[in-house]
Each structure stands twice: as structure tokens, then as C-alpha cells.
Write a structure and sequence with these properties.
By secondary structure, this protein is mostly helical. The chain contains seven helices and no strands.
Length: 129
């Protein structure tokens, strides 16, 4: 965004009917607060960061969906497409997890629990590290 575009963007967010000495926040953001709508698929909306976030996610999605000959990019592509294959995920259900769930169900003491937590951390299961 160029300088003039930024100025125009800021101007459209301001409410010039408000005295900035009385309520600077309303003066600075009032029109944006009145006009902005939270998208139905979002819990919040931030004008400056959400558009950058969306652009970054779109770029990342394009990179992941693009096939590549390099080993690391091919692995990322394969992993991403497997995770996005909802039909296959639904078809498999919890079958891929059954061996792990059986191991968890077989835990009978603290030492086995410690070993399982370590195994899950090594497998990069979130929220256990």
C-alpha cells in the first residue's frame, strides 16, 4: 500500500464529527467501528492484521498445494494433502488411533504413564511438551 493509499485508508476510519480532545479513540476509529463487520467465520476482526494474516495463509496454502521435486517440499505437500483429505479421514475414523489408544488404556502405573507422555512428546502431540 502506498503513502496516499494509507492516508485515504486512515481517513475512512476516522469520525471527524467527534472532538479529538473529548474522545480521541472515537475520533480516530469511530467510522471504522461503525462500518466494520466481523466475518461470520471469525470470532474477531482486526483491520490491520487480519488482511496480512489472510494473505500469508493464502501464500502458504499455495506453496503447500504446489507439487515439488525437492524432498522437503514434497514431504510438506504430501502431509498437507493427507490432512486435507477429509473424505479419507472420515472413512478411516479412529482406526489409525486404535493402537495408541490401546497402549494408553493399558497404563496401570505412574512409570507407564511417564513413558507414554514421553512417547507422545517425541511424536509431537501438542500440549504435552
Amino acid at each position: 500500500m502506498s503513502g496516499p493509499d494509507i492516508v485515504a485508508n486512515v481517513d475512512t476510519s476516522m469520525d471527524f464529527s467527534i472532538d479529538p480532545c473529548t474522545n480521541h479513540y472515537e475520533f480516530s476509529c469511530g467510522q471504522w467501528l461503525e462500518d466494520a463487520r466481523i466475518p461470520s467465520d471469525k470470532a474477531r476482526f482486526d483491520k490491520s492484521w487480519d488482511s496480512a494474516d489472510t494473505a500469508a495463509l493464502d501464500d502458504l496454502r499455495s506453496l503447500l498445494e504446489e507439487k515439488s521435486n525437492t524432498t522437503s517440499r514434497k514431504r510438506l505437500h504430501d502431509y498437507y494433502t493427507a490432512c486435507m483429505d477429509e473424505e479419507r479421514i472420515e472413512e478411516l475414523g479412529n482406526t489409525p488411533l486404535k493402537p495408541l489408544l490401546a497402549k494408553i488404556d493399558a497404563i496401570t502405573n505412574k512409570e507407564q504413564l511417564d513413558d507414554m507422555i514421553s512417547e507422545l512428546c517425541v511424536a509431537a502431540i501438542p500440549n504435552l511438551a
